[in-house]
Specification:
The structure holds 2 protein chains of 2 kinds. Chain A is mainly beta. Chain A has no helices and 11 strands. Helices cover 0% and strands 50% of the residues of chain A. By secondary structure, chain B is mostly beta strands. Classes of the chains: A mainly beta, B mainly beta. At the A-B interface, strand 10 of A face strand 5, strand 9 and strand 10 of B.
């Protein structure tokens, strides 16, 4: 059974803190993605990775960085959290065999920045 | 620009049929996805269309018209557990998903 896990369901951080969001998938997927989801907006892509040590900017990378040291793990880093980064963060993974592969999502991390 | 439009909210009755529409404008097109998302949970895959026509999968069907930039998700024999948000996403020429804001479906007894 497909499984994507995220390190926390809820997080509360203070402005200026460094925040790490971890995502692990057990499906041996090559592709991994980080999105944020805000009310009234569609999912917005922050960063994605098609392979270990590889990363590509999505639509809204500003204020974020990522790390992919192992195939199964993709980390999202907020270098200095700000209140406008309060959001739901969703990690997803997919196979690389065909570009139109289904993305499988983790349960999400709801981050509140005070 | 790239844009996905779908209604914000719909209400339907248990046992009835509901159609959720989605129109899209993306740079290139590599298929249209529908996902279901229950409150506080992860989106889960429902369907993928890349050719025109209707794809049926149990109580759920998805339709695509590429010439019209239009898709719909049809849910039959509605059950209370179908109360969720339904997300439409178009895959563009770079194989990136462009997401709609989602349609919140409320099922009443």
């Amino acid at each position: 059974d497909v499984k994507v896990t995220q390190s926390s369901r809820y997080l509360v951080k203070r402005t200026g803190e460094k925040v790490f969001l971890e995502c692990v998938q057990d499906m041996d997927h090559e592709n991994m993605f980080w999105y944020r989801q805000d009310p009234g907006l569609g999912l917005r892509l922050i960063y994605f990775s098609y392979d270990v040590k590889m990363k590509e900017k999505g639509d809204i990378p500003e204020g974020y960085s990522v790390s992919r040291e192992k195939k199964e793990r993709f980390s999202l880093i907020l270098e200095s959290a700000s209140t406008n980064q309060t959001s739901m963060y969703l990690c997803a993974s997919s196979r690389a065999e065909g570009h139109q592969e289904t993305q499988y999502f983790g349960p999400g991390t709801r981050l509140l920045v005070l | 620009g790239q844009n996905i439009d779908q209604p914000t909210e719909m209400t339907a009755t248990e046992g009835a049929i509901v159609q959720i529409n989605c129109t899209y404008q993306t740079s290139g097109f590599n298929g249209l996805f529908w996902y279901q998302q229950h409150a506080g949970e992860a989106p889960t895959f429902l369907s993928y269309n890349v050719l025109d026509g209707l794809e049926e999968k149990g109580r759920f069907s998805s339709f695509l018209s590429r010439s019209k930039g239009y898709s719909y998700l049809l849910l039959k024999e509605l059950q209370m557990k179908d109360s969720a948000s339904y997300l439409c996403a178009s895959m563009d020429s770079n194989y990136q998903l462009i997401w709609g804001a989602g349609t919140k479906l409320i099922i009443k007894p």
